[in-house]
Amino acid sequence: MRRRIESTLGGEVVADRSSTGGFSKGTASRVETRTGGTGLVKAVSRAHDVDSYDLYRREGAVLQLLAPLALPAPDLRLVIDDGDWIALVFDVVDGHHPAADDPTAHRAVLDGLVGMPAIEVPMPALADAAAEISAMTRGFREMTAFAGAAALPAWARDHHHELVALTRSAPGAIRGNRLVHFDFRADNALIDTDGRLRVIDWTWASVGCGWLDSLTYLLDARVHGGGSDADDLIETHPVFADASRGDIDSALASFAAYFLYATSLPSPAHLSDLRAFQRLEASVVLEWLAMRRGWKIEGG
Question: A single Gene Ontology molecular function, please (predicted)?
Fold first, then answer.
């Protein structure tokens, strides 16, 4: 595997620097060769973590499928999959993740997402975002059917039926034919040295409406203490041109439903902080939805 990577990069690897972040247990390292070549190598063994192995395998397959399209993504140069180990080798992008409180960065990200390509022919490897959203909110609807409004924070219980109705309309709101990253947050976005957006980690690529990634990005900014410009961008930025106010609210309701249901589940053994973070996400998106719909937030 090392020899194939070095052959692709044009020289012996003499230095590497690991990246941090994300939920995968695989490695991601920026490597340099004796001849000055560079690459980003993501690798994991099946024995170390079969889930990460399968995620990397899916990401490689998706990127190879999408290679003919003009993606705002680092080029995938090599995939090695011998059944025990998998490695993905990408071009290095010099850039930075957008800050949650940087309106200029938010606009640069949304500008980059406007050009996401349409999927003109069926690609079975890409999920249908509308069907995924429906599946993601099913658990919430079942939970509230059993527990009723008690499944919600106290201040939101008067809006239980409205919230459920919004989740039911979400699949129709986000249906479309555009490529959707479907896991888009600031840590999956890079602004390169020319100010252009580059998107990484394409494991969950799907087909849906052209504004869904922009909405999840703005939600992530709000979760991290920024995003005060989110509603203004939704009203004015071209990426949201096809989204009605109701569409946006339906999508936000579906995110809240997913996070609320997820927090009722046991924490994964290797992600002990995940449920606490999802509780924060649920709180932020519910309060945002409440502001948009004029719901009273007790104590707010």
Answer: transferase activity
